[in-house]
Amino acid sequence: MHIPDGFLDPKIWVGASALSAGALAAAVSNTRKVLEDRQVPALGVMAAFIFAAQMINFPVAGGTSGHLLGGALAAVLLGPWSAGLILTTVLVIQMLFFYDGGLTALGANVLNMAVIAPWVAYGTYRLLGGLFKGNAGRTAATFLAAWLSVMAAALACSLEIAFSGTVPLAVVLPAMLGWHALIGIGEGLITVVVVSFVSRLWGLEQPGQKSYAGGEQL
Amino acid sequence: MSQVMDHFLQPGGHSGSFMHRLDPRVKVVAVAGFVALSTMLTSRTALVLAVGFLLVLTAAARLHLRQLVSRLLWLLPFAGVMILLFPFIIPGEPFWRWEWGILTLTATREGWQHALMLFLRVFAAVLAVNFLMATTGLRRVLEALSFFRVPAVFIQLIEFTIRYIYVVGDELRRMNTARAARGFVPGRHLFHLHTFRTLGQTVAVLFVRSWERGERIYHAMLARGYSGENRKRALPPPGGWDLAWGAFILSVAVGLRLFELGGQIWLMSLK
């Protein structure tokens, strides 16, 4: 879902960059209050973890495979502000070292995968987690949070490309959403396993608790 | 993966052309400006000229094109698929047809031209970013970004992440080996739940190990007196030679953009 250079119109990429910059500034101030610069090493290791987790491929169908985005995972386990910082770091490194995602499209990619995806996941998780109690409820909330985060990022990506006039909306929207509806299932399944494993291991009611102790307050 | 990263962690590269010694801030601005302007180009001539200019720069900096080509493979999943599909999805005058039973594929001239334009834009941008990274090295690029007031949190995060990508990546490789040694064979579709349980547990264990490692690292750094402050090394002001090169690179991009706009006006005046 990494948009390369040349796919976006200047209006779109400048606008998306401005939105992302605002979201990141908010993330920096919201994490700094309690997290402070001193915890940066720990966030760096988590970013390296997301980077590695994105390299794990899972089967989709007929020999094709997808990989984890990690937006929902980071948002549920570490909080959406930290998730934004971590995923932005991952995207910058992917752009600089692997040419995955363009320089001018960085703002749009950050917006889709480091802002929209974690916040949609976090919002869904908190909302549904409050509605349905118990283990099954939390599993459903986690799965839907992960699936919706992938779909929201794919939707934003399609709209950006379509409004740039690169591909007609009628072509890019069904293609992106169709494919990511499948990818999102894989993302959801893996996120469910990880979240339940981690909360059982740490003995937490809510997985976010540990990261509150580490700093982020929401 | 790690060879790719090693290549860039060498500051300045080994061949040491004069491009390598240009001021990193000038190069960051020139390359970013070039990419921004070249993504606005629409005519094939201007894009081919932009790619040609970047190839000359790449050659002048004595960078290896072969490594670049292998790096381009990373783009295939998204950009490659989209560019390959364009001739078939953009409506227009058909120029190629392929029939196979009931399935008919028609490629259109407009679609093909659109695909070629996007390919040239992506190629130009990749050449430009490669030129920047390969002649400057990560450390100096980050110094330049810090000069441009990118918050220190991001600079430090990028440095720490790159440091630990190796560590976490090695951990993951060992876990993959262990999983394969236990006879794990991934299923072939989304509904093979055993696959997802196993992969999910891999990610979960990796998460917990990374988290604990992060805490240990943080405490070890505190014990050595880490306070979150980053010693900043001020870069010397760029010289006239640096600025001249930066201005030259940018003026080529501006020139191509003007050439294209001028060409359009000229064409319209003919009509």
TrEMBL record, chain A:
The keyword Transcription does not apply. The chain crosses the membrane at residues 12-28, 40-60, 72-99, 105-128, 140-165, 177-202. GO terms for cellular component: plasma membrane. It is found in: Cell membrane. It is a multi-pass membrane protein. It comes from the Bacteria. Pfam families: CbiM (PF01891). GO terms for biological process: transition metal ion transport. InterPro entries: CbiM/NikMN. Keywords: Cell membrane, Membrane, Transmembrane, Transmembrane helix, Transport. This is Cobalamin (Vitamin B12) biosynthesis CbiM protein. It comes from Desulfofundulus kuznetsovii (strain DSM 6115 / VKM B-1805 / 17).
From TrEMBL, chain B:
It is found in: Cell membrane. Its main location: membrane. GO terms for biological process: cobalt ion transport. The chain crosses the membrane at residues 28-60, 72-92, 112-134, 146-166, 243-267. Keywords: Cell membrane, Membrane, Transmembrane, Transmembrane helix. One of its GO terms (cellular component) is ATP-binding cassette (ABC) transporter complex. It comes from the Bacteria. It is a multi-pass membrane protein. PANTHER family: SLL0384 PROTEIN. This is Cobalt ABC transporter, inner membrane subunit CbiQ. The lineage of its organism: Bacteria, Bacillati, Bacillota, Clostridia, Eubacteriales.
